Amino acid sequence: MTAAATKIIQPLPLNFTNTTPRSPDKALFHPLKTTPSSSFPASTHKLRLTKPNSTLARRRSTAVFAVSDVVQEKKPKSNTFHPNLLITKEEGLELYEDMILGRSFEDMCAQMYYRGKMFGFVHLYNGQEAVSTGFIKLLKNEDCIVSTYRDHVHALSKGVPARAVMSELFGKTTGCCRGQGGSMHMFSKEHNVLGGFAFIGEGIPVATGAAFTSKYRREVLKEGDCDHVTLAFFGDGTCNNGQFFECLNMAALWKLPIVFVVENNLWAIGMSHLRATSDPEIWKKGPAFGMPGVHVDGMDVLKVREVAKEAINRARRGEGPTLVECETYRFRGHSLADPDELRDPSEKAHYAARDPITALKKYMVENNLVSEAELKAIEKKIDEVVEEAVEFADISPHPGRSQLLENVFADPRGFGIGPDGKYRCEDPKFTEGTAHV
Ligand SMILES: Cc1ncc(C[n+]2csc(CCOP(=O)(O)OP(=O)(O)O)c2C)c(N)n1
Ligand SMILES: [Mg+2]
To answer: What chemistry does it catalyse, as a reaction equation (predicted)?
Structure first.
């Protein structure tokens, strides 16, 4: 084997240095005029926007820079008392409450899991709240979301009651999937939460299909008011899967109303993103398919929200999909079964210091949008919501035997399941004429 070939098949060492000359970095936007987007400490790669060189790339990336310009010039008109801020007091309180709910809920899940109240894998979202809140709080109920196995907080942000999510985790009938889905399969038709998915990448085609439905209803069935948007959330590791590329292609080709939201938390279980991906700047894959690609600081809910507004509105206006890469970090192990011994303590400390909840709190208090007391009141209210969710889940009944096969396999002949948990049509005494469904 030649030396060159050997070099190619070697995984990148953690201290990999990219020596390729690059054009000057240009951070995408700085809506809060804070520090430029950070680099990932696991590598010398900086996940910043690099100006595209070719004319084609420039043409395709125009929308990326347009997002940037809009964000920099943003001055919300409604915010009469704080004309230089990106949010009103009400908006700030809503964002804070949603992030606190996500964090407190997940902390409670950890406690309940270790007390044996939940079974199977449980993946928590601590640290990534700015992404769920920054995007989902901008949606209408009719808009759809699709998540991964790290899905509790997306469901909460979309309005699924905490008690329904907790009960689902406890495997109880009062759960949002009647206890049949569990942690990785949150679903709510009422809230248009189209699922958590245990298989990585599996939700992306479902989200693409949902976006196709909206377009079909609007353009073929002539439902003029159907401007629904779908958000697909997934991780950095998932972007190496085929479905990601296939769906980007299809969504761009058909100009579907979808936003692909990558939650790049640097790790896919124990595999560093920088060792697994040929070009770690995921946002660049958007322009490759003819859609805008945006990189945003996923630890800053206000920045995420500004990018989300642009991408969601673009989809709603019928202008097609956007790929948004949110640079974020999970504060706990991959799942509650993971002792989290692989990640460097200094990397963890770096991101812990950028906690998105603390950052929003600081921003609002320093800009006199809210008082500490108002934030404390929200924290107290959410504590009660989460406590109540646990009590509710605890006293709720387990599903009966008859539910065992429901929604698992297609009922062979459509006559339902009897009280013994077996298909009615399999009963030797069954006849179609007397079947009672
Ligand atoms: C199709 C498939 N292959 C492999 C796995 C095993 N697996 C579970 S989580 C995971 C890593 C995914 O990482 P990422 O997309 O970055 O999401 P994160 O867990 O960081 O949120 C893998 C490979 C799986 N669930 N599905
Ligand atoms: Mg990841």
So the answer is: N(6)-[(R)-lipoyl]-L-lysyl-[protein] + pyruvate + H(+) = N(6)-[(R)-S(8)-acetyldihydrolipoyl]-L-lysyl-[protein] + CO2
43 CA to centre of ligand 2 in angstroms: 15
Q: How far apart are CA 32 and CA 80, in angstroms?
A: 18
* Residue 290 pLDDT > 80: yes
Which residue's CA is the closest to the ligand 1 atom numbered 12?
268
Domain with 406, as residue range(s), is 400-437
**Span from the CA of 237 to the centroid of ligand 1 (angstroms):** 6
Asked if 42 contacts 274 with a C-beta cutoff of 8 angstroms, the reply is yes
pTM summary value: 0.81
Burial of 30 (0-12, 13-18, 19+ CB in 10 A): middle
> Per-residue pLDDT tens for 320-347?
999 999 999 999 999 999 999 999 999 9
Domain shared by 329 and 352, yes or no:
yes
Residues 407 and 324 in one domain: no
Identify any residues that bridge with 264 across adjacent strands, giving them in sequence order. 327
Q: Does one domain contain both 132 and 114?
A: yes
Domain-located, residue 248: yes
CA 41 / ligand 1 centre spacing (Å): 22
Overall number of domains in the chain: 2
